[in-house]
Each structure stands twice: as structure tokens, then as C-alpha cells.
């Protein structure tokens, strides 16, 4: 996105990319990953993880339609 000078899209994706990197770096040693199945049920974190997943899903759907609109607009203008 930076190479093609799409600054708005880059700035829109920057917070989500930063959050994903933060979540990946902060995984405690010994866990299988960010969403360790045994830890989610043991600590009762299922609701918070589902909330985070739904927010990310909404963001990615919004981005998908923005990218689709941009592609169609670019094809029409050519």
C-alpha cells in the first residue's frame, strides 16, 4: 500500500496490524498460540474472544467492500 501510495488504506489498516502484532508478541510462553483452546474455557475468556473476533470480522467486511469498490472504479475509469 505504501509503494502504490494508498495512504488512506494504509492508515486504515495500521491499527489492526499493530493490534495483531501486539497480540502475537504477548502470547505467554508455553501456549499454543493467541487463542489457546484450553485457556479460553478455563479462564472464561470465550465472550471477550468472540467480541474481538466479531469486531475484526466487521472490519474485514468493511475493507473488502472498500477494496471491491476501488477495483470496480479503477476498471470503469480505464
TrEMBL record:
<dbReference type="InterPro" id="IPR003377">
    <property type="entry name" value="Cornichon"/>
</dbReference>
<dbReference type="GO" id="GO:0016020">
    <property type="term" value="C:membrane"/>
</dbReference>
<keyword id="KW-1133">Transmembrane helix</keyword>
<feature type="transmembrane region" description="Helical">
    <location>
        <begin position="57"/>
        <end position="76"/>
    </location>
</feature>
<dbReference type="GO" id="GO:0016192">
    <property type="term" value="P:vesicle-mediated transport"/>
</dbReference>
<keyword id="KW-0812">Transmembrane</keyword>
<dbReference type="Pfam" id="PF03311">
    <property type="entry name" value="Cornichon"/>
</dbReference>
<feature type="transmembrane region" description="Helical">
    <location>
        <begin position="6"/>
        <end position="25"/>
    </location>
</feature>
<comment type="similarity">
    <text>Belongs to the cornichon family.</text>
</comment>
<keyword id="KW-0472">Membrane</keyword>
<protein>
    <submittedName>
        <fullName>Protein cornichon homolog 4 isoform X3</fullName>
    </submittedName>
</protein>
Amino acid at each position: 500500500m505504501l509503494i502504490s501510495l494508498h495512504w488512506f488504506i494504509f492508515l486504515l489498516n495500521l491499527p489492526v496490524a499493530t493490534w495483531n502484532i501486539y497480540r502475537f508478541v504477548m502470547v505467554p510462553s508455553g501456549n499454543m498460540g493467541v487463542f489457546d483452546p484450553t485457556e479460553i474455557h478455563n479462564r472464561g475468556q470465550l465472550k471477550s474472544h468472540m467480541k474481538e473476533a466479531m469486531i475484526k470480522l466487521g472490519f474485514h467486511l468493511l475493507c473488502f467492500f472498500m477494496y471491491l469498490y476501488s477495483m470496480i472504479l479503477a476498471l470503469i475509469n480505464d
